[in-house]
Amino acid sequence: MKSFKNYKNIIRLAIPIILANASAPLLGLADTATIGQTGHAAHLGAISLATLIFSFVYWGFGFLRMGTTGFIAQAHGKSDQKEILSVLFRSVLLGLVIGVLLILLQFFIGNFAIWLLSASDEVKALVADYFYIRIYGAPATLITYSILGSLIGLGKTKELMWVQFVLNGFNIALNILFVVGFNMGVKGIALGTLLAEWIALFFGWYLLSKSLNLSQTIKTIKNLWLQIINKVKIISMFKVNGDIMIRTFALLGGFAWFANEGAKFGDDILAANHVLLQFVSLSAFFLDGFANVIEMYAGRAIGKGDKVLFKQRIRESTHISCATAFLLGLGIIFLAPFAINLLTQDVEVQIIAQKHAIFAGIYIAFSFVAFQLDGVFIGATRSKEMRNATIFSLLLLVGLGTFTAKHFGNSGLWIAFIAFVIARGVSLGLYLPRLMRETF
Questions:
Q1: How far apart are CA 64 and CA 69, in angstroms?
Q2: CA distance 354 to 339
């Protein structure tokens, strides 16, 4: 009975995260539909490329979310309120500093990013319009990462969901207002996103302050200042965050390599792979929800020094994640003809995607191990192992993929991609016994 209750709690905590994750694509669809009202293809292309630039930049600083979760969860496990607040303010200050630096370096970053784009002069000009408005939301976005990481570490997943809903809801509403109402085009999309980022920051801070009973922020910072700037803690934070950053770029590199190799087989295969990757992304909404929960549980167990609880929580959350992954994988395999036809009307792309759907299903079914162990190691703030596992897996993908793609075409490419996600899970699994020996 107790075990059933634990499973129920894991699902209860994961559902708000899954819903928050699922709300993100709605924003992209709304932006596309809104700017599509202008009737200009250049505007649609500019939004796509400009959003890609910010996704790449912000993904690089995703450690502000992940690193914060582990430290907060461990402090919560120790019932150390001062350390919880110190970790929070340390992360917020780092997000603020990075955000301000991005603003100060905006012309270098913007010009370089736009120079890399293969687009017309008109599209590049529109990308610049978007970039030089939205960049002023960098501090808000990065500080919000710290807030979201803190909410997960504290187990406040409903609050996290509401922050995401407010961000995406205001973004959609403001974009419609500025584009449809004021006819501002791409600049309207950028301004709406900028304002939504700042609104989400203040709303998130309000919810987090309520959760922590934090009424006098400035006074609290003054009282904890020496603990916030503790040299040992700052060095530890930078080590963890640096490793997560490298791991993130290695992960992005794997997906980018897969997409680029697929492009070599022609536009139809590139498009088919893109369609199948949408299913992979959809599955990630679910699996990431359970991974976020185990981040919190693992960190708390480590904070309490409870090895039995640590192993129990990993086992329980993995059971749920495994069942979810296999159901999603089987769903993609058996529902592929219907689902693929919803995403593309191109008959040749449909045929290719249906032929390779089984590979996407297998990838999803076995990806839960990497998600779960990522969560465990984030909660344990053992980022070096995550970095090493992802780099090794990337090298395996490139090495194996070069061979299999040459001999088996796109099927060989998918086989290597499946090996990539399995290798991430297996590599972290081999590190797990050492983590438990050194932690407990």
A1: 9
A2: 10
- Residues 224, 349 within the same domain: no
- Regarding whether 59 and 25 lie in a shared domain, the answer is yes
Residue range of the domain that includes 381? 245-439
Q: Is residue 399 part of a domain?
A: yes
What stretches of 105-216 show up as alpha helix (H) in DSSP?
A: 106-116, 121-134, 138-153, 157-176, 185-211
Give dist(CA 274, CA 262) in Å, integer: 9
Six-digit token string for 96: 């603020």
Whose CA is closest to 250, among 67, 372, 400, 387? 387
Q: Is residue 239 part of a domain?
A: no
Question: Residue 200 and residue 245: Cα distance in Å, rounded?
Answer: 24
Q: Are residues 95 and 165 in the same domain?
A: yes
Structure tokens at 64: 């502000």
Q: Are residues 284 and 428 in the same domain?
A: yes
419, amino acid identity: A
Specify whether 277 is located in the same domain as 138.
no
Amino acid of residue 304:
K
Helices (H), 37-137: 41-60, 63-77, 81-104, 106-116, 121-134
* Cα–Cα distance list, 158 to 147, 178, 374, 379 (Å): 13, 30, 22, 19
For 126-152, write each residue's pLDDT tens digit: 889 999 999 999 999 999 999 999 999
Q: Dump pLDDT digits (tens) for 376-422.
A: 999 999 999 999 999 999 999 999 999 999 999 999 999 999 999 99
Q: With respect to residue 330, please indicate whether it lies within any of the assigned structural domains.
A: yes
The vertex-430 CA angle with 428 and 431, nearest 5°, equals: 65
What would you report as the CA-atom Rg of the chain, rounded to the nearest whole angstrom?
22
Pair 222, 259 in one domain: no
* CA 232 – CA 10 distance, rounded (Å): 33
